[in-house]
Structures are given as C-alpha cells and as structure tokens.
Amino acid sequence: MNKNRIVVENLNLWFGKNYILEPINLEVNKNEIVAIFGESGCGKSSLLRSIADLHTVKEVEYTTGGNVLINGLSPSQAKKEKMIGMAFQEHTLKEGTVRDNILLPLNIGRKSIVDTEYYEKLLSLVGLAEYADYTIDTLSGGMKQRVSFARALITKPEVLLLDEPFSALDLVLKTRLMEELSAILNKVQTPTIIVTHTIEEAVFLADRIIILSSKPAKINTEIKVNFPKPRLASIMNSLDFMNTVNTCRNLILNNSKYENL
Fold first, then answer.
1. How many CB atoms lie within 10 A of CB 257?
2. Model pTM?
3. What are residue 10's phi and psi, to 5 degrees?
4. Any idea where the ABC transporter domain is (predicted)?
5. Is the dihedral of CA 89, 123, 82, 109 positive or negative?
6. CA separation (Å) from 131 to 64, 120, 141, 187, 232?
7. Predicted confidence (pLDDT) per residue in 206-234, tens digit
8. At residue 110, what are phi and psi to the nearest 5 degrees?
9. How far apart, in whole angstroms, are the C-alpha atoms of residue 26 and residue 8?
10. At 258, is the pLDDT very low, low, confident or very high (cuts 50, 70, 90)?
11. Helix boundaries (H) for the chain
C-alpha cells in the first residue's frame, strides 16, 4: 500500500430512505489535489464527510457501504492518529488568539507535543507570523481563513479535506487566497480533496476534477488539469484555462437534473 494517499472503494451512502451516493471509487496520491464538483445538493459534502468519518446518528439515520482508507487505516483510526486535516466554508474558529486556534487540534484527544519550529514555519507560510497574539475577533475574513488552513495543517496530516473554503469570500480575497493555498499545498505535498461549487476554483487548484451526477451521486467524468504548480491568478486569463472551465461547465449542464426543464 502506497503511503500518503486516500483510497475510496465502492463507497455508498443512504440517509434514511434517501440514496445519496452510488458506489464511488477514488484514489488521491501524494502531492495530488482532487476537486469534487457538481450541482448544489448532489452529495459533494456528503462524500467528503464520509471520507472524514464525520456523519453522526444525531443528524439522521444513515448507512454506508464500501471502504475508505487513509494511509491504510479506516477514517476513524486515522482521526485518532490525527492524520486528517480539515477546513470548512465556515471557519469554526474559537474565541482566543490565533495561536490558541492553530494549536487546538494538538490538544484534542491524545495530547501532542508542539513542534515549535514547524508551528513558526506554518505561521509564516500562511502570512500570520506577526499575528499570533491577535484575538480572532480582530481579524478580517481572509485572515480567519488563513488561520483555518494553518489549523488544518498543524498536526502534519497525511491528508487534507477542504469543504468550500472560499465560499464566503469576495472575488479579490478569494483569488489571493487561492494563490496562497496553491503555494502552501505545493510545499507540504499533502494529498488534498477540495469540494467546491465554483468551476474556476476547481480548475485553478486541482490536478484532477471529479464531476458528480445528481443524486444519487456517482462519478460522471474526470478531467485532468495540467497547469504547472504553484499556480498564479494570471493563468485564469489564458485560453487553456478558459477552455477547461468551459469543458467542465458543458459536462455539468449536459448531465444536470435540470436539463429537461
């Protein structure tokens, strides 16, 4: 078994009587970024939460089939070993300082020793070296999202899962943070799955784009993206970028549940 990868084998999901995911098969290897894309409500986040073992019986009765492995471990085992880093569309930060929030995962479950050198490098990497003692309520939206990225990476996770991390940001800030995230992921080389509902985000960040069908979701198609990494916003003006965006858009529209309306 290769290390540093996510393996999804015949994963399916039911919420009560609702069939959410048809059997999904997917692998993500080291230094690979895979974007999950599809129309609203198709099951993108449900797939991500299944990989992260975040479904609970408090939400709704659910059943799953198939198998998910994180470096050869089940998601629940991988969580205990702090192998999974996550960031969401809502930053979910706590009261306290930037430092408190970034170091929080190290104090959940089995305590972990702070690698001070890595922490300081991470702060610098996300552009927060001068803000460690700032309280969260004094930060801008973009800075809060940087804290979320740093917190997701503080445990040196084997995989990174991002659920629409830019959805609450304006265009200028979103573009700047996408550039920064591309540079960060190129340095840490952590296998990453990012869920997005924006085609341009998927094309800009990903090595592969997985397009899901309507519910019950299945993988309709896969598109490879070959732009050099790390990526700069200027590539979005290129003909190749726009052609890739249009290809994705046409595939979505041709397979949409709304196509016959």
1. 12
2. 0.86
3. 50, 40
4. 6-239
5. negative
6. 42, 11, 14, 22, 25
7. 999 999 988 899 999 999 999 999 999 99
8. -70, 125
9. 5
10. very low
11. 44-52, 75-80, 98-103, 116-125, 141-153, 171-188, 199-205, 239-254
